[in-house]
Amino acid sequence: MPLRITGAADAALMDLPWNIPLSAWPEERIAALPRGLSRHVVRFVRHGDAVLAVKETNPQIAHREFTMLRELERMGAPCVHPVAVVTERRDASGEELSAALVTEHLAFSLPYRALFSQGLRKATLKRLIDALAVLLVRLHLDGFYWGDVSLSNALFRRDAAEFSAYLVDAETGDMHPALTQGQREYDLELAVTNITGELLDLQASEDLDEDEDPFEIAERLSQRYEMLWTALTKRETITENIPLHVAERVRALNALGFDVDEIDMQQTADGAALTIKPKVVDAGHHSRRLLRLTGLDVQENQARRLLNDLDEFRSFSALRDDESFAAHQWLTEMFEPTIRAVPRNLRGKLEPAQIYHEILDHRWYLAQAAKHDVPMTVATASYVKNVLPSKDDERAVLGRSIAEMTAELPALTAEVGTVWTETRDAHAIDNTYGWGAVPAPESEEPATVRRETTRKPVTSVPRARLANADDDAGELDGEGF
User: Fold this and answer.
1) What pLDDT score was predicted for residue 191?
2) Band of the pLDDT at 446, cuts 50, 70, 90?
C-alpha cells in the first residue's frame, strides 16, 4: 500500500525520507537537539522553519497517542502538539517499516538529563519535581490517567524563577470523565517509583551528587501533589461571613495560578452553614490576564512576574486608573524596547518573556550594589554584555543565581558611569537605542536619587546566600502551595 499520512494539512511532510528507517535518516535532516531516554527511536527533524520530533512505533500506538495528545491539547493541558501519524512505510526493497508519530518540538525545552548534565543544584532539582507535580495535578483534574509518570516522559521549560513541565509521551495514558482516588494514588505511586529509579541511575553515572537522597527527592513529588490537590479540591464548611470566605478561597486559588469557573455550594441540614468546593478549576490565571491586557502569550510564572512589573509601572504612570491604557504604555515603553535592545543573534537563547524576567532580576542586583535605582537601559546593556552571551541556545545556565552571575561585574560606576559626559560615547554600552533618543549630556551634577528600588526578584535574599542555608528547613511548610 502507498504511504499514508494522517493529521496536519502539510503536503511537505511527504518530502521527508519515510522510506528509510529513522535511525538512518541523512544528517542534513536531523536537528542537533538534546533527547531524553525513550524505548523507541526518536529523532528531531528539520522541516522548513520548524523542528519536528519523529518517533517510530507501531500503527495502533501511534494513532492512539496522536488522538490522546489532540484531546489533551483541546482541554488546554501542557503537552506537545501532535502533527501527524505516518503509516504504510516501506523501504526500497518493499519491506515494511514502523509507523511514525510526528509532534512539534517544544521550543526552549529540555529533557531532564540535559539539565542534569549542566550540574543542577539541589534547589533547582526540587523545582523540577515541583513542576512535575503541578503537571500531574492538572492532568488528573482533566481526567487523564498517565500510567507512566517519570522525568523522562516530560519536557521542562524555564518559567521565570521556576520551571514548567509538559507531557511528551502519552502512549500509556487513558482518558476518563473523572479519576477515582485509587487511580490517582496508583499513578502517583508509579511516579515516585519511576523518579526514584531515574535519580539512582543519575547517581550511578555521577550526574547527581551522591549526598542527595533519591528516595527523599522522589517523595517530594507526592507531598507537593497532595498539597496542591487538597488546595484545589477540598470541601470546607463556612458558618459566618460566607461571601468573604468564598472570595478569599477564590483569591487563594488565583494566587496559585488557577481560575475557578464553578463552585459547588450546599447548605447544611440545619441551614446554619454552607459547604463549598471548587467544581471547575482552570490553570493559567495570570497568563490569561496578561494576554488580555497586552497580547503577550507566555507561561504562568513569567506572566506573574511581568504583571508585577506592569503594576509597578502603572503606579508611577499618569494612566494608573486605566489598566488597559497603562498596559499598552508598559508594552510599548518597557517590554518591547527591552527585547528590541537585545541583539538578534542572542534572542534565540531564551524566550522574550524569560529574557525580560532575567533583566529585571539583573537590574535589582545592580541597584542594590549601586544603592539607587538603575535605568532599564543600563540593566539591559549590562545583562546583554555580561550574562546572556554565556548561555547556550535554547538552554539556561542552570544552578547559578543572578547574584553569582553579577558578583564579578565591575562596580556600576566603573562599568557604565552614573552620568552622561561629553567625552563618553553615548552608545558605548550597546543596544540601548531601542528606547529612542539617547539622553543629552548632563551640564551639571544631577540630584542624588534617594528612592530605593522597588523591583525585587522572586526571593529577596540572593540565592548565593540561600545555598549556604539548610535547603529543607521549613520548606514544605512555608513555600509553594
Assistant:
1) 93
2) very low
Q: What is the pLDDT of residues 224-241, one digit of tens each?
A: 999 889 888 888 887 777
Question: What does the angle CA 386 – CA 389 – CA 393 come to, to the nearest 5 degrees?
Answer: 150
DSSP 45: E
Q: For position 180, what pLDDT does the model report? A: 94
Domains of the chain in sequence order:
4-105 (3.30.200), 110-233 (1.10.510.10), 236-283 (no CATH), 341-466 (no CATH)
**Which uninterrupted H or E stretch holds 281?**
strand 274-283
Provide the grid cell at 290.
496578561
Q: Over pLDDT 90: what percentage of the chain?
A: 16
pLDDT value at position 320? Answer: 62
Q: Which is nearest to 89 in space by CA: 172, 24, 173? A: 24
State the Cα–Cα distance between residues 337 and 352, nearest whole angstrom.
Answer: 11
Nearest 5°: phi and psi at 164?
Answer: -115, 140
56 vs 98: CA distance, rounded Å: 6
The answer for residues whose C-beta is within 8 angstroms of residue 351's C-beta and 6 or more apart is: 107, 108, 157, 158, 298, 302
Cβ(270)–Cβ(262) below 8 Å: no
Q: How far is CA 204 from CA 217, 290, 304, 388, in A?
A: 16, 44, 38, 33
Q: Is the pTM of this model over 0.70?
A: no
Report d(CA 177, CA 67) in Å as an integer: 16
* Cβ-Cβ contacts under 8 Å for 20 (sequence gap 6 or more): 26, 91
pLDDT at 103: 92
